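User: Can you predict the 3D structure for this chain?
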Amino acid sequence: MPATTVRLLGVSSVVPAAGNDTASFLLNDRHLVDTGWYAAIRLLDHGLTPLDLEHVILTHCHHDHYLGLPQLLFYVGMRRSQAPDRPPLKIIGPAADVRRVVNRARAFLQTERFPEVDATPEVIPLAPGDTYECAEFRLRTAQTRHPVQGLCYRFEDRRTGAHVAFTG
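Assistant: Here is the predicted structure, written as structure tokens:
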């Protein structure tokens, strides 16, 4: 039976020291929770590729939790030819901010000017109490106490029956 894995990519505070990254971790090597500053590079450091990601789950939209999103989208767009049948990356996050953050990340990349870098993701806004389900897992949400809308998540791995809770 497969195991549920949690791989820490970054555990530093708002401004990381050299060689570190802010909050970011990976569930089952395919579901990224927050992007820190350097998610794409940190994945490569672990022998993984952003092309393997299925979901990005944002706990909240403070800078240190999404600064790595433009680089991640850029990598997926530039390497798209290596995985031509790859479905769009799904980005899940707080309904109040997730679309704005994704749209601004794409605007930063100037995707209208450079369409070759556009890896248009599927954005899935969630509110406290919402549930997201796919074949591999169920994600349940609850409200956090934070200056911006945030979500606590309970990741329920359908393959193993394991549960992982995280707040960001």
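The mean pLDDT is 94. DSSP finds four helices and ten strands in the chain.
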